[in-house]
Amino acid sequence: MKKFLLSVLLCLPAFLCLSGCKKSADYFSYVSEYRKSFYFYKDDTISVKIYSVDKETPYSLDGVKGDVSNVTEIYFEYNGSANEVEIELLGHGGEMSWLAVTRNYYLSFAGENFKEASIPVTLNIDGKEKKVDVFNVAEEGTIDGKTALKSVYEYDSATFNDLTNGANFSGEIIIRLLYDDGCFYYVGVCNRDKNVHAYLVNATDGRIIAERESPAEP
Q: 218 vs 57, 60, 62, 177, CA distance in Å?
């Protein structure tokens, strides 16, 4: 009996080392889109949304993370009609493209991680200039995307574990900061079959508000 106990004790440190050295997936490293800041302005005639996004290029929601780079995306809505819209902010800008499907104007450019409380924007709508300050929607106490992802994992680890083999994850993850009278996060887990399990997360306390499953958008 003493010899048996001794052999068990001798093997125990090696077992503990193997257990402690076991690797697990770093899910944040599989994020193919991370909208980390959101600036917003709205009045009776226009609205402006500015996103700072780390995003896969070219973008393809197929369950495989590609190369990611930072991009600034700007969306402009106008309740009238305009033949030409130009925008300028912090040394960037140009003519905006009309998106017929979403019925708004769009411009993007590489780089910039805006952290200012507000961004001064100059719009030129068919030759008429309009200046506005577009405000950061994230208030003090708003969690970041990594914390939102952690909250989702703690809520539904099974969805992640089903796609995990050791340190490898067979999917890609989307994290988008949203705003609607308060901040929220959209967290989507896309598998190789292009199915997305999505969660809506309260951006103050990390609470999961809603979830759904659906095919990835084309």
A: 15, 8, 9, 21
